[in-house]
Amino acid sequence: MENEQSNLSQKQQEYWKKNTRMISILLIIWASVSLVAGIILAVPFSHIQFFGVPLSFWFAQQGSILTFLVIIFFYAIKMDKLDKEYDVQEVILSEEGGSK
Amino acid sequence: MTVEALTLTLVVITFLIYIYIGWRSKVKDTSNFFIAGKEIPAVANGAAIAADWMSAASFISMAGLISFLGYDGTIYLMGWTGGYVLLALLLAPYLRKFGRYTVPDFIGDRYYSNAARAVAAIATLFISLTYVAGQMRGVGIVFSRYLQVDIVIGVLIGMAIVAFFAVLGGMKGITWTQVIQYSVLIVAIIIPAAAISLKLTGNPIPQLSLTFSDIAQKLSVLQIELGMTEYLAPFTDMTAINVFCVTLALMIGTAGLPHVIIRFYTVKSVRAARWSAGWALLFIALLYTVAPAIGVFAKYNLITSLHDTPIEQAESYNWASKWEETGLLQLDDKDGDGILTFSGDEDMNNEVTIDPDIIVLSTPEVANLAPIVIALVAAGGLAAALSTASGLLLAMSSAVSHDLYYRIFRPEADEKQRLKVGRIMIFLAVIIAGYFGINPPGFVGEVVAFAFGLAAASLFPAILLGIFDKRMNREGAIWGISTGLAFTVIMIALMRSVQVFGTEAPIIESFFGIQAQGIGVIGAILNFIVAFIVSRRTAAPPEEIQEMVEDIRVPRISEKK
Q: Of B420, B438, B456, which residue constitutes the final position of a domain?
């Protein structure tokens, strides 16, 4: 995809690259707390106690959901920062009238 | 006041509020009708998404299902929350930047094809229709259980309310009623959960007492003693491969559900789309982290109050006799010793049969809570069903009136005609939903697997590739969607042939061990592979489409520095 020609400016390409890198890292975390910790490693992790419940059970029924929350808010905050860093002009598309 | 009178009062009050909001937000143009004029604040959109998302099934049945599946109940917990990460990171910001009305809008424009648009519109209709039938049924059930009203009348009342604010207020009316409906349903689930948590563990916060007390451990040990599956151990009720595939299919399916996706068109900006995904999951997580706690508490409480109890004593409990009347609880002293026995051995020794639905519904009574809480749970169940139904009805209406009528058949239609068609369609959708609510097809439970499977196998890959693969073209997308759809539909139909075709046994049991609920994952993978291969062997998309893709990926950036 690197070689594709693009109409984007240097800065826009940088912005996109930083965005996609962040998305990849966050998706790896997303998969590790849910599919990996809660399902693939469920059997070994069920021998580790996490307070009142086995570790894998905690991930499967509580921890994964809490981590999902952190991931989304972290991404929203990081993107706000990136927007600021690149002095992004927020575009509000409303080509068809609509809002008064 | 009796419980019935309290329930009736609370239901009437909440309904009047919904009607009032619908009246206040009546709309006059298509932008307001389909996407609320792009004026919804991020937090309100989050609450509306949460209400849209959490159906009668999430509210009434989920905690019960989890309490019966134990560890494996995670398929619903992770499956129905994990999709929001995909939405927030991969779809919502870009679809908002694209900024139209519907999912087929994006697919049709991105793949410069009305065939793709029509397929996406039909998929949207089918997915939403399978879903909405259950919601209207849910309204009827709540009415009949709490107010002794006939199910048909309950469904008709629900239809009238939804029709009023949806036809009049479109997306705007729906959104603001959903915000209120979310508040009602979350209060209705949190209060009984906190009360039963306090009673059993001394800690009123259910999430904390599930993790930090030994209640789950006690239930697990108790279940083993009674010959049931070990509550805390994985894969006792489902195989590992199924837990994996079903979880992933529900995650991908969630991210591909049209009625959820269109909500991200209603906010002011790309930034607001990212934040509203966060608020949405926060509001959803409130219920989804409490549900597994309720599952554990309520099941422990039920077993300890009924096991080894003389049957006369059990039947003297007010709640036990009431739920026995509805058939959701069955007490049967098979060995005639006068004492009830719980057992994992279904046929022989078990003397107590529990329908998963009563886990949530009976909690306030079992925990001896005030009648107002019981009334609140009824109002909450109605709020959950009505809010989900209204979101689905709008998705159906926009697929027909915007995508099929305006974008394909009558591009010259003016604003007034489009709004009129939109209103007529939503009204028709209410009637169809009501019909299925009154005459549920025999396989209602089964078709939910269809909804998620189809969303996962068709819409999600097409949207994702449309954003992240600039080279993806019309041919690739159409072949990909068709392959994913065909595979998923055929597989589910074969595995559920008993319900779908009325055969005696399923034509095939599973696809290499993967059952119907998880098959969408394979459909999605096939979609990705076929789309990639076909697109690389056919012409690249036109220049202006490639520019459009770049335009939705990144914002305008000022070059001066």
A: B438
Which among B423, B438, B453 is the end of a domain? B438
Q: Which residue has the tokens 């770049």?
A: B550
Q: Is residue B172 part of a domain?
A: yes
- pLDDT confidence bin for A100, thresholds 50/70/90: very low
Supply the pLDDT for residue B442.
56
Enter the tokens of residue B338. Answer: 């006068």
Which residue range is the domain that position B194 belongs to? 1-438
Cβ–Cβ below 8 Å for B554 and A38: no
Intervals of chain B under pLDDT 50: none
The interface pTM score, or ipTM, of the predicted complex is 0.93
Burial class (CB in 10 A: 0-12, 13-18, 19+), A48: exposed
Nearest to B328, CA basis, from B145, B484, B463, B180: B145
Residues B473 and B334 in one domain: no
The answer on pLDDT for A96 being more than 60 is no
pLDDT at position B145 is 77
**Of B80, B211, B514, which to mutate for an interface test with A (greatest number of A Cβ within 10 Å)?**
B211
Q: What pTM did the predictor assign?
A: 0.93
Contact check, Cβ <8 Å, B554/A68: no
Q: In chain A, what residues touch B243 (CB-CB under 8 Å)?
A: 39
Contacts of B289 in chain A (CB under 8 A): 62, 65-66
